[in-house]
Specification:
This is TonB-dependent receptor. By secondary structure, the chain is mainly beta. Helix content is 6%, strand content 54%. The strands form six sheets. It has a 22-stranded antiparallel β-barrel. Strands 1-6-7-4-5 form a five-stranded mixed β-sheet. The chain has a two-stranded antiparallel sheet with strand order 2-3.
Length: 731
């Protein structure tokens, strides 16, 4: 089986808590030995489902959307939002898909959410253009990454420092005046090295605002890395890495979707009421890593990190009901535009009374900082060999909300400010989290058996401090709620190497999601199991996995992105639920070793997700729940298929994704849903010489029109057909 196919299918990923850059060149194997989950060669050892999307696979379609990348992986669920993957909603094995708040997301092994404990649903995701590889691990492996162990973990590996001086420039242009530019340059000397990398993206957007307006975005991302290594003759090898990052985004995006009738007429329409909607973000990152080899079989990897993130999403929040003086949520209006005919008319641009449209300065600031270290050693006890890891993370993060509302009227299609809210008069609070995490994990190999026992401990101190919204000042504390969480999270996996081709594996572990500050909810807990097999023979590789996540207490969280009419940050106990399913992946090269390779891959996911108790909840996506009701935003079937042709200097590829429809609220039988769809992508490339490649791709080739979500408010479309041409230059 070809190395490319082995990487494109599922790979075993041995866990280490501290990671650095991605797949290194041979001369840098030791320099970059701190990858989190492991390498392709470990496929047969993994005690759970694991996948690695390598650089070659990413470059095949040159996707800049994490949604399209992850559709290649079974067991991963995605809910699109704006069509570009800027604010993805990712879940694993039914964990939930509101932002990425129910899984562990890392960049180079460091938690990357702006406040991963206090506010994991915040709006930041690494820029895919500068990601070299993506690791996805499900099951008990999440114990090493933590703190959220229910579904799994995703690690995005940034571009590594090359072993020799070099670089790359990738430029493309496409539909809606979309510019995608990415470049990096760097290298490694005998003891010092580094690189600098930059991304620029901009587009006019594919939606059209009534009366005109900007519906696109601009993104800038810069990363710099420096490295020092000890002298070749040093008695103890050491490595020191420094990483800086700066990311800004200016996106004219909205929470306002469409009423169903308007979606059927023109899915890419945007109402006039969203014309002022805009989110601006800024993220700064600093990491200092240290690797030391304490002995022939022992290493210590340590990273200190700090991220700072600020954002202000100025967007339409709700619309005035003059009869009561209260405001009606935009989701409520679009669900029933007949009842709310006046409010709907104002959304679509008709003249309104004063204060009719309320826009929110959704201003928030975050930071996260910490120190994490992992000690790894190998040793033998009799006939058994051990790969033991002991990890520690000390972490602190914060979310600071300081928000206000402005009110407008529409007159002649123009927004007229009628009331300017004072800062801090809508929301004025701070959420803090401090965490101490420990884990111990051992990989025990003897004969044909590999056993992987592990345990994680999380001690989390949460606090929510509220200040006056009447004055907007912070001189008086109105309330302070503190919560302590102590949790022991065990896990165990076993792998049996039946022969050189066939491997059986299984694992069981405790799923855990901590509560938010002052949420009033219990921690989310479950018992999760999986059992599967891998078969690799010649040009074919197959993985088949059955899984079940049995929740003793499912937790729902009110966020602005979930579209609920509730207090943001509130959490709701959903009691018992069960998510079970089947994951299958296959890879085969029809002409391995021939002049033209014909690689084929297939990924399929079947999911059954239902509540196991009855209750009534004020969480809008649940409502009145009966035993057996389906969980919202979880599709029953997902399929990804890909076929390629590749010669010495050229390549062609076609990918198809079947996206099943999903319920948007708990229930059975008929109900509000997204649309099912088959989305085709086409790509091709031609290598002019050793350094220059020309390429093109078309996304959504058949121009499929479908509802991808009904949250935060109203029906939202998938990206229409979009074409791009580009050039990749290496030097």
């Amino acid at each position: 089986m070809s190395p490319t196919l082995r990487l494109a299918i599922s790979l075993a990923l041995l866990p280490t808590a501290a990671l650095a850059s991605g797949a290194p060149s041979p001369e840098l194997q030791r320099l970059d030995s701190v990858n989190v989950f492991g390498t392709a060669e470990d496929t047969q050892k993994a005690a759970g489902s694991a996948h690695y999307v390598d650089q070659e696979t990413l470059e095949r379609f040159n996707y800049r959307d994490i949604n399209r990348v992850l559709r290649q992986v079974p067991g991963v669920y995605l809910v699109e939002e704006e069509g570009y993957g800027l604010r993805p909603n990712i879940g694993i094995r039914g964990s939930g898909t509101d932002r990425n708040s129910r899984i562990t997301v890392m960049e180079d092994g460091v938690l990357i959410a702006p406040a991963p404990y206090a506010a994991p649903a915040a709006y930041y995701f690494p820029t895919m253009a500068r990601i070299d590889a993506v690791e996805i691990r499900k099951g008990s492996s999440a114990i090493q990454a933590g703190p959220r162990t229910t579904g799994g973990a995703i690690n995005l590996i940034s571009t590594p420092i090359p072993g020799e001086p070099g670089g790359e420039l990738d430029l493309s242009y496409g539909s809606d005046a979309t510019v995608l530019a990415h470049g990096w340059a760097g290298g490694m000397g005998e003891r010092f090295g580094g690189m600098v990398e930059a991304v620029r993206q901009s587009t006019n957007g594919f939606k059209q605002i009534d009366g005109g307006g900007d519906a696109g975005y601009e993104l800038n991302d810069v990363v710099a890395k420096l490295r020092w290594v000890s002298a070749p003759d040093a008695g103890v090898y050491q490595q020191l890495d420094l990483k800086f990052g700066h990311n800004t985004q200016d996106s004219h995006e909205t929470y306002l979707g469409l009423a169903d009738a308007d979606f059927r007429t023109d899915p890419n329409r945007r109402y006039a009421g969203s014309r002022l909607d805009n989110i601006q973000t800024e993220q700064n990152l600093l990491e200092l890593r240290h690797l030391i080899e304490l002995g022939e079989n022992t290493t210590l990897n340590t990273v200190a990190y700090r991220t700072e993130f600020s954002r202000n999403w100025y967007k339409l929040n709700d619309v005035l009901n003059p009869l009561t003086g209260s405001y009606v949520g935009i989701g409520t209006i679009l669900a029933d535009p007949t009842t709310w005919s006046d409010q709907y008319a104002w959304l679509t641009g008709e003249d309104s009374p004063a204060d009719a449209l309320r826009l929110r300065n959704n201003n928030r600031n975050y930071y996260a900082q910490g120190l994490q270290t992992v000690l790894g050693t190998t040793f033998a006890t009799g006939a058994a060999s051990h790969e033991l890891e002991v990890g520690l993370r000390v972490h602190r993060d914060q979310e600071d909300r300081y928000q206000d509302d402005d009110r407008y009227r529409l007159q002649g299609g123009q927004f007229v400010l009628t009331r300017d809210g004072a800062p801090g008069t809508q929301d004025n609070r701070v959420g803090d989290a401090e965490a101490l995490s420990l884990f111990v994990h051992d990989t025990i190999s003897f004969g044909k058996w590999i056993l992987t026992p592990g345990v994680r401990y999380e001690r989390i101190d949460l606090a929510s401090t509220r200040y006056s919204t009447a004055t907007g000042r912070r001189d008086v504390v109105l309330s302070k709620v503190e919560t302590e969480v102590d949790e022991v999270i065990p896990g165990f996996g076993a792998t049996y190497l039946l022969n050189d081709s066939l491997t059986l594996f299984g694992s069981v572990h405790r799923g855990f999601n901590p509560p938010g500050p002052a949420s009033g909810a219990l921690s989310e807990k479950s018992v999760n199991g999986e059992f599967g097999l891998r078969w690799n023979e010649g040009a074919m590789g197959v993985e088949l996995v059955g899984f079940v996540n049995d929740y003793s207490n499912l937790v729902g969280t009110c966020t602005a992105s979930s579209g609920g009419n509730c207090n943001l940050g509130d959490q709701f106990d959903g009691g018992e639920a069960r998510v079970s399913g089947l994951e299958a992946s296959l890879g085969y090269d029809f002409n391995e070793g021939g002049a033209v390779s014909v690689p084929f891959s297939l990924a399929y996911t079947y999911t059954k997700a239902e509540f196991r108790n009855a209750f009534v909840s004020s969480f809008e996506e649940w409502g009145t729940v009966a035993v057996g009701d389906q969980l919202p935003y979880l599709p029953e079937h997902l399929v990804h298929a890909e076929l390629g042709l590749a010669g010495e200097r050229w390549r062609l590829g076609v990918a198809a994704n079947y996206l099943d429809d999903m319920r948007t609220e708990a229930g059975t039988g008929p109900g509000e849903r997204t649309d099912s769809a088959v989305v085709w992508d086409l790509t091709g490339g031609f290598q002019l010489n050793d350094r220059v490649e020309l390429y093109a791709r078309v996304e959504n080739l058949s121009d499929e029109t479908y509802v991808v979500a009904r949250r935060p408010a109203g029906a939202r479309p998938g990206q229409p057909r979009s074409a791009f041409v580009g050039m990749r230059i290496g030097f």
